Amino acid sequence: MYTFQAREILYAIYPQDSTTGSFKTSKTPNKHGLSPDWWIKGGSSHATPTPRDAAYLAAYVRIAEQAGTRLYASGMPMEDDFIWLDRAVIGTLLTHQCVELHDEAFELTDKGRALVAAV
Question: Which of these, 22, 42, 12, lies nearest to 83 by C-alpha position?
């Protein structure tokens, strides 16, 4: 899967424009993402998961499934780039126990699966 295809999945689940969206790609992985503290210390976690958080998680899950990859904390590898996960979204999901970090990848908890199912 290429990043433009992943972006289409995200935009289909959560329509947005340049002021409301976040879709960062890079040729290199996000080494900071391997630390759960980095996600949380960003200071942009929400008091409770928002509809945007749920939509992004649902999109990330669908992208990972279709690309045959996992929700790697360092970024999801695509054919052309890495997709860096949104720091506020992941920080919120970690804080509220919707995802957990295992073996360098985020895995959904029951709360996370419920969020995705509601999208």
Answer: 22
Pick from 74, 75, 90: nearest CA to 31: 74
Does the pLDDT at position 24 exceed 80? yes
How does pLDDT run across 38-58, given as a tens digit for each residue?
A: 998 877 788 899 999 999 999
Burial of 69 (0-12, 13-18, 19+ CB in 10 A): middle
Whether the model clears a pTM of 0.90, i.e. scores above it, the answer is yes
Tokens describing residue 71 = 């929700």
